[in-house]
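tokens incoming
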């Protein structure tokens, strides 16, 4: 059976059957009513007469009832009630207490495309699902809001609601039905997302490279920063006080997932760091919760250039900052720790009688920088001092190193 969290495809039978209400188009509805008039059919399906009239008099019925009846009739040889034809004849999808519907839904819902990547990232980062199960997204940039609304309509279908008017609202809200689908099919948490520690759905990691770049672009547009030759991403999660005091470290699933996706673009990111914050009151929960603040960064010209070319930003001011950052590099700069790796590889080629001036030319660093690098490699046990620097007739001869193995 299809598993949406792995495939990114949500079919009618993947929806929670007791929570979702369905309205079908008239020709098929009339045929269904005609069959359910039969007492024998109702008896076989264990359907009460009141349920028949509920279908007849109301715009929508539970998905459970609809799947149960059409599956039975399809098995009886009535091909018009096949699962595929049923999906094509869905007119509205709603909920019991919701008055905003998805009209002419684009079943099955396909998230495994550009719009799906953008929409899921938006909900996970600057958006969320409130306690009424309504997904929301907020951004002061109109273009960002309009994009997410268009993505939602491309995935789900027609959405008629004042709450999705991106031009009049800084904060757009989508129908409850969509929140139930996102929660049920992709395990995206409901309520304050700082208590949810959401994960990136599995299907995102199997998207094509271009769609992955859209997901990352949305994430960094929402929560990323460009400061002093560094791209950063930050995340916050609140945990129970006891767990907070006992655990020395807790993973922040979203940022761990982002770091994994960056590897597909050969972009190295620095280790995830976190700080603990204490407070007597957080979101009206006195003394119950404490906060972890997570962050990681992307540094080094190569990594920043790969990000610029393969991912980038939709927000113009962030893209300009990154462009200026890349132009500000006067010499080829490496991430912290990279030069030591390069120096060690050069030493492995030389193996013995490794002199600092010679190595400095190979790795394109000053004499003083190379001295510090060699001392660092010696401290880690990679190199052994064969002969210290000596003074011979007023001339200083450099230290000589050799590989330890």
């Amino acid at each position: 059976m299809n598993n949406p969290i792995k495939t990114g495809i949500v079919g009618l039978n993947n929806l929670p059957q007791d929570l979702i209400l369905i309205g079908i188009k008239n020709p098929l509805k009339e045929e269904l009513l005609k069959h359910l008039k039969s007492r024998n059919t109702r008896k076989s399906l264990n359907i009460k007469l009141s349920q028949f009239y509920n279908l007849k008099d109301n715009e929508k019925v539970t998905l459970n009832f609809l799947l149960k009846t059409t599956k039975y009739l399809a098995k009886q040889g009535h091909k018009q009630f096949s699962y595929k034809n049923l999906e094509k004849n869905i007119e509205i999808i709603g909920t019991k207490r919701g008055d905003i519907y998805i009209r002419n839904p684009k079943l099955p819902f396909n998230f495994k495309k550009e719009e799906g990547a953008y929409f899921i990232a938006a909900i996970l980062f600057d958006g969320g699902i409130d306690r009424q199960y309504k997904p929301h997204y907020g951004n002061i940039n109109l273009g960002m809001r309009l994009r997410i609304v268009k993505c939602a309509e491309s995935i789900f279908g027609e959405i008629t609601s004042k709450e999705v008017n991106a031009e009049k609202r800084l904060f757009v809200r989508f129908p409850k039905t969509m929140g139930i689908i996102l929660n049920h099919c992709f395990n995206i948490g409901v309520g304050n997302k700082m208590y949810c520690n959401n994960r990136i759905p599995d299907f995102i990691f199997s998207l094509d490279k271009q769609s992955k770049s859209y997901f990352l672009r949305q994430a960094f547009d929402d929560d990323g920063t460009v400061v002093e030759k560094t791209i950063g991403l930050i995340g916050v999660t609140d945990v129970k006080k006891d767990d907070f005091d006992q655990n020395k470290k807790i993973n922040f699933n979203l940022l761990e997932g982002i770091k994994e996706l960056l590897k597909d673009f050969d972009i190295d990111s620095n280790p995830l760091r976190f700080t603990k914050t204490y407070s007597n009151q957080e979101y009206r929960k006195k003394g119950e919760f404490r906060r972890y603040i997570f962050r990681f960064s992307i540094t080094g010209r190569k990594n920043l250039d790969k990000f610029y070319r393969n991912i980038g930003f939709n927000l113009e001011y962030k893209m300009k900052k990154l462009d200026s950052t890349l132009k500000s590099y006067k010499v080829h700069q490496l991430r912290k720790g990279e030069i030591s790796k390069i120096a060690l590889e050069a030493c492995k080629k030389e193996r013995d009688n490794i002199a600092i001036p010679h190595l400095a030319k190979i790795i394109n660093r000053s004499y003083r920088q190379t001295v510090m690098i060699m001392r660092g490699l010696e401290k880690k046990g990679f190199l052994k001092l064969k002969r210290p620097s000596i003074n011979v007739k007023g001339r200083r001869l450099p230290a000589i190193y050799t590989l330890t193995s």
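note: The chain has a mean pLDDT of 88.
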